[in-house]
Amino acid sequence: MQQPVIPAYETSPELEATLGAVETQLASLGEALRTRDSAAIDLHATELHRSLARAVDHFTRAARSGPVPTPLRERLALAGGLVAAQRESLARATAALDRAIDVLMPRERPAAVYSAIGPADRGSRGVIQA
Q1: Is 30 contained in some domain?
Q2: Closest by alpha carbon to 36, among 108, 89, 81?
Q3: Are β-strands 114-115 and 118-119 bridged in parallel, bridged antiparallel, or unpaired?
Q4: What is the tens place of the pLDDT at every residue in 9-65?
């Protein structure tokens, strides 16, 4: 009986390494966010972006050769979910910060742009009243 041919991507540590890099950067970014270390957040966010780009490239090439092993697909999906969760967390934190800044430093509100009879800055000149 002949052994089945195992696709090269299943035995290649390349997919495992790229996925491991994504997972490592996700964990590092999560820790930086937890400790509110802005320099580390910037560094790990950049590295996560690079790791994700490499992983997408490697997984795309592997998928062209045949199905990607289920455990790796599941880990990649989990990583994608974690990225989405961190993005949502950052969006909420940013919105909260924006609200706090608006309370502490209210912006000047411009005069009304329109009145009942048109643009407020026109005054009475140029306005025809019936």
Answers
A1: yes
A2: 89
A3: antiparallel
A4: 454 688 999 999 999 999 999 999 889 898 998 999 999 999 999 999 999 988 888
28 occurs within a structural domain: yes
Domain residue limits at 40: 8-108
Check: CB of residue 81 under 8 Å from CB of residue 23.
no
SS3 percent helix, strand, coil of the chain, rounded to 5, is: 70, 5, 25
Query: Would you state the structure tokens that stand for residue 4, as one six-digit string?
Result: 């089945």
pTM greater than 0.70 (yes/no): no
Asked if the structure places residue 127 within a domain, the reply is no
| Cα(126)–Cα(114) distance, integer angstroms | 15
Overall number of domains in the chain: 1
| Site of tokens 């407020």 | 120
Sign of the torsion formed by the C-alpha atoms of 111, 114, 117 and 118: positive
